[in-house]
Amino acid sequence: MSSVLINGNEIGKVIRNNLQTRIEDLKKQGVVPGLAVVLVGDNAASKTYVTNKQKTCESLGMHSRLLSFTSSLSQEELMTTIHDLNTDESIHGILVQLPLPKHFDESLILSAISPDKDVDGFHPNNVGKMLLGQETFLPCTPFGVMKLLEHSGIEIAGKHAVVVGRSNIVGKPMGQLLLQKDATVTYAHSKTPDLGSITRQADILVVAVGIAKLIQAEHIKDGAIVIDVGMNRDENNKLCGDVDFASVSQKASFITPVPGGVGPMTITMLMENTIQSAENKLRQDK
Ligand code: NDP
């Protein structure tokens, strides 16, 4: 059996086309949705992510501002920058690119972002709202995975979803969003003994670990839906996921590739959240 490819590039494009209409509507009312991205230090991967976010903003006709600092920036200076952005009328979304250099208190920084502009969905208020199923900004990667499932016509209710990874930005919220759609959810992580015995139970398997080709065909059941969040480099320095695509795609019913699966959706949902924030602000101002 060979699986159906869930194409994040294509699905992302469809969603971004729909966003274009919302951007035009905002512009007609004098609002250009604006995203500020704060980059501290010279992590090469972070620079690439930031450039991609800016390019996507620009391609949609949104306003984007990059605030780039050397790693000598102090916690206090970064706090001041965030406070300035919180009150800047032209900015609807604020994103601090992670990871920050070690001398920063990441959770304090993320908590300083106004929850109304927290388009990454990392502020404790927004995490709480997500958990309660209230309307809020959803973290972009799990939000993107939910959109991939929806656009692929995959029914979630009643399925057993296994999420491998429990980080605050991917794994934990991923499981919660699946739970809200009535999946039965199991989390696995680095302390889970016999990972395969858990992953083989999954109707929907989401892998967000960061270990190249951790999941092999023997770790999944026939016909499973496999979503690969991982972004790693293989032995030839080629981008690859946490799932061994060559073998697993022979056994899964649906699978996301890396690249071209979850990655493009993360950026797309960041755009969606920024537009949502601009719409919220416009509604409040009326
Ligand atoms: P973290 O390092 O924060 O979390 C990794 C998780 O994997 C942890 O919960 C850890 O468990 C678990 N884990 C580690 N080793 C194992 C193992 N051997 N078996 C089972 N679980 C294990 O990573 P992130 O969540 O931030 O990212 C995960 C991956 O997704 C990375 O490759 C990252 O690059 C990618 N990513 C991709 C995005 C995209 O847009 N495509 C966006 C964000 C991330 P424990 O908690 O016990 O330590």
Q: Output the CATH homologous superfamily of the largest domain.
A: NAD(P)-binding Rossmann-like Domain
Task: Write down the CATH topology of the largest domain.
Answer: Rossmann fold
- The best one-word shape is globular
Gyration radius, in Å: 19 Å
Number of domains: 2
The first-level CATH class name of the largest domain: Alpha Beta
- What level of helicity do the residues show? 40-55%
Find the count of extended strands (DSSP E, 2+ residues): 11
| Associated small molecules | NADPH dihydro-nicotinamide-adenine-dinucleotide phosphate
Q: How would you spell out the order of helices and strands?
A: EHEHEHEHHHEHEHEEEEHEH
How would you portray this structure in words?
With 286 residues, this protein is of the alpha/beta class. The protein folds into two domains: 30-114, 3-Layer(aba) Sandwich (Rossmann fold); 140-263, NAD(P)-binding Rossmann-like Domain (Rossmann fold, 3-Layer(aba) Sandwich). It is 42% helix and 15% strand. It has ten helices and eleven strands. The chain has helices at residues 8-28, 44-59, 75-86, 106-112, 124-132, 140-151, 171-180, 195-199, 245-248, 262-285, and strands at residues 4-5, 34-40, 63-69, 93-96, 160-164, 184-188, 204-207, 225-228, 232-233, 239-240, 254-255. The strands form three sheets. The chain has a six-stranded parallel sheet with strand order 1-11-8-7-5-6. Strands 3-2-4 form a three-stranded parallel sheet, sandwiched between helices. Helix 1 (8-28) packs parallel to helix 10, helix 6 packs across helix 7 and helix 6 crosses helix 10. The longest helix is centred in the C-terminal third of the chain and has 24 residues, at 262-285. It is globular. The chain starts with a strand and ends with a helix. The structure holds NADPH dihydro-nicotinamide-adenine-dinucleotide phosphate. Residues 141, 164-167, 169-171, 188-192, 195, 208-211, 229-232, 262-263, 266 line the site of NADPH dihydro-nicotinamide-adenine-dinucleotide phosphate.
